[in-house]
């Protein structure tokens, strides 16, 4: 029977792609150096799933499969997407598709397959609730990580270091969130809620999607397909759906090497760069989806119907709820105030990246303004002996790629090297044969 250590060397909060990539990097480095560090990852979901409620039919990745968990660092790794295809006897078939962009469903399966090799290191079904510093005199010698499972059972793990990668926190505009109505759904819960409280597929429903980004467009098209008799509105603050820019002349900002350049700039220059390139990642939509939506709107003009609408330049002024429907009061530029009634409203309104900071509230007095260094370690005074790293919360210091998959392979290796250098003071263990990892994978 497995017994957890009294003190872990490393505890990771969250086990999405970021900490999964870290698990791989740790495995590689510890094997190479013949050392061992006890580590585990605490994940609130009952099993590995990457954006499970947005795994919609027909949705593809927006980055190349070569930006997987490892290939930018080591394309020969057994955890590459190419090896995943080989192990599932689909390599030739994938090549025949002539694409760099697998479906989101397939990429999730790749991530889940990889995560399965690290099950012994992951504690699924637990949510981290707080992190408490442990003092010896004035020194912080360890951290106590508190978590609870779905049944409310609590436990505490002691660790010498911490890596936060909890992902984003769903953001819902106040005018919608304050109603606390389960007919208002954030995109992060889209499929689950559609299945939990299904609508009659043949019903003449009124549905709205709020947002102007990729998720909003995908959900809009899914609703149109899922409910063929429904009227579906896409409500935008902007004047139009904006296409994402993803040509080679601009994609360099997502390369890992760009992180060094961005980090080395002044705060003022960083802010300017973020504003300049914001359209590559936020409130933009793939061109093929815009074309599909435009084609639907034009077809309606031909046949004189108005089943789907794009309501642009709209701000939600008020939300009223009754037992029958939700009423949105929309202020539309050039058209004044209008009221629209809906059976469901989907808020595809993005995420906040402040989860790490809120969980570290009891340690905040020991943190130096939540400043994150080049290699993703939080700045702390010398008496804080337990290093803390953060993944996915450093856009303002490390660039737009920080919340994306593009830098995972390199970032995870940088963090793993830092952790091993700081913590691996234990005597070396005998190195395994090189084929041991391959046997585990295959």
Automatic annotation (TrEMBL):
<keyword id="KW-0560">Oxidoreductase</keyword>
<dbReference type="Pfam" id="PF13434">
    <property type="entry name" value="Lys_Orn_oxgnase"/>
</dbReference>
<protein>
    <submittedName>
        <fullName>SidA/IucD/PvdA family monooxygenase</fullName>
    </submittedName>
</protein>
<dbReference type="InterPro" id="IPR025700">
    <property type="entry name" value="Lys/Orn_oxygenase"/>
</dbReference>
<dbReference type="GO" id="GO:0006879">
    <property type="term" value="P:intracellular iron ion homeostasis"/>
</dbReference>
<comment type="pathway">
    <text>Siderophore biosynthesis.</text>
</comment>
<keyword id="KW-0521">NADP</keyword>
<comment type="similarity">
    <text>Belongs to the lysine N(6)-hydroxylase/L-ornithine N(5)-oxygenase family.</text>
</comment>
<keyword id="KW-0285">Flavoprotein</keyword>
<keyword id="KW-0503">Monooxygenase</keyword>
<dbReference type="GO" id="GO:0004497">
    <property type="term" value="F:monooxygenase activity"/>
</dbReference>
<keyword id="KW-0274">FAD</keyword>
<dbReference type="InterPro" id="IPR036188">
    <property type="entry name" value="FAD/NAD-bd_sf"/>
</dbReference>
